User: Fold SCY1-RELATED S/T protein kinase-like from Salix purpurea.
Amino acid sequence: MGLLEVKHGLLQIAESLDFLHNNAHLVHRAISPENILITSSGAWKLGGFGFAITTDQASSDLTRSQAFHYAEYDVEDSMLPLQPSLNYTAPELVRSKAPSAGCSSDIFSFGCLAYQLIAHKPLFDCHNNVKMYMNTLNYLSSAAFSSIPPELIPDLQKMLSANESFRPTAMDFTGSAFFPE
Assistant:
């Protein structure tokens, strides 16, 4: 898949997320390559809404205590409980003491997806191991972004911030210098 096609697809997913967050008032919580559908005409669609919650649910105390629970060490994929892939899950959905699990969680996952599509490798390759995930998150360096176009790096780093308040909105992402006007 060429870079132009990836740019076009990322813009379509960003528009989908903007609609999801601001019109449908939903948080997807499972954005990953498996949940991106490409039509025969080349349009990118967001699917896989099995973990979606309303934005009201995302801000409630009950939901805050219901982060996904991943194993600390490697486990066989067939033994995993039903939950999104850890490689694309925002840290606040992994840590049980998260202050929130809102729209910014989708932006983190979208950043992981964008990284993989452009770098041709996942940013996180943690085999559903929380310790590997947290280690990668805590030690992200500029070297991790060496295969990313320079005009996208600042926006991608914001999307992948461990602090959800630093993440942009989906529409903010569409204003990146990475996308020509």
Notes: The longest strand covers residues 36-38. The CA atoms of residues 60 and 103 lie 13 Å apart. DSSP finds eight helices and four strands in the chain.
